[in-house]
Design goal:
Length: about 80
């Protein structure tokens, strides 16, 4: 994935996080805050998937094994 596209998506996520910070400061409902946090998680997950897919498309066998270990660590938390 192109660096500029990654940076643009990160900036959008950063804007979402700032929006949630403002919602907390304005004492918005927990439901509203939770919905926005879920949207941030979804955007972050989508970016991770895009980056990993791009890496897989370009990887050799050794790199694929590294990626497999990384994904397993991510899933385990």
């Amino acid at each position: 994935m192109e660096i500029q596209k990654i940076q643009n998506r990160l900036k959008r996520i950063e804007g979402q996080v700032r929006g949630v910070q403002e919602m907390v400061a304005l004492l918005r409902s927990n439901d509203e805050i939770t919905i926005q946090l879920s949207a941030i998680r979804s955007a972050t997950d989508s970016l991770i998937i895009s980056i990993v897919e791009d890496e897989i498309d370009q990887a050799d066998k050794d790199r694929l094994l590294q990626l497999k270990r990384t994904v397993k660590r991510m899933i385990r938390g």
